[in-house]
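Intended use. Records such as the Transport permease protein entry shown here are meant for training and evaluating sequence-to-structure methods. They are not intended to support clinical decisions.
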Amino acid sequence: MNAYIQLTLSQLRFFVRNRQVLVFTLFMPLFFMIMLGSFLGKGNDIIVDGVVIDQDQSAESRVMVEALQANPILKLKPAEDMDMSLQQLKHGDQKLVVVIQKNYGEAVAKKGADSSKASFLQVYYDQTNQQSAQIGLQTIGQVADGVSKQMSNYMPIVKVEPVGVQALQLRYIDFLVPGILAMMIMTNNLNGVSGQIASWRERGVLRRMQSTPLKASTFIAAQITARLVMNTAQALIVLLVGALIFGTQVNGSWWLLMLFVVMGTLTFMSIGFIIAGLAKTPESVGPISGLISFPLMFLGGVFFSISSMPEFLQPIVKSIPITQLSTALRQIMNVGAGIGDLWQEGLFLAIWLVVSFIVATFTFKWE
């Protein structure tokens, strides 16, 4: 028992003192989370930027300007210089330039009697950005139609009854944080275990341990305990940073979240032991680990949703352990899913854990 505790504490001291380990196992995931969360974490709200130029300056034109600026999709700022606004549009600084022409108020006062002679609401748009242009033009058309109906006292025959349903509003950062957590667990254990064990074998550390009364089970148990403590602490730090900076939260059970953290740690530790056993030299561990972990980061639903991948690839992607881990963490944090909802992810991870552990027992070598 004393040897187990000493080995565990020694491994934890190694993690804390090794700056390179801290950088790659904690600071790099935090860097990815903060950078991607800052740029993309606010969600996918559609906003069309532009300017509105009121050349008429009448009471009627001011009503139209207010209606355009009140629309949540349009973000139109008032402007006066037509040439400068069009230059900004050509340079990509604006998406729309809306011009309310002169005599607009007079035409509205006559209820459109002269509307066939001129277009009193011109919209300049960027032809190279068709998506924003179509959204902007349709929205402006709806706003203009609403103003016209209001002025003509139009009474619709068919009315729409809106019924609101409270839906789960998720931002990209809510999707990203569980994925970063899964990525950190994978890289810490798959890359970390394989590299450390291969290095110790090369330097004869494992051979000297084998010659002592130390049991292999005690050595492995100390490794598992130390990495579980490290991964749990790092997971709490990532969740704390996400909550403080981006307002993310855990809607489900903390115990269930930690259970999947433990299962993910054990699974990727076992895979790390397999890589360490198959690699002939410490120098070959890095390329082998990178060849496995790097594709998994992009295929396992860490940064992007699996549903956006090609359909023929999705069954394969759903069978890898990081996909099950990231999905489970995401469901617990965002949806508040329970163990009954995540039995499939838990079963897949358990199968990976058992199979990897069995293979690791055959591939592990002390020398």
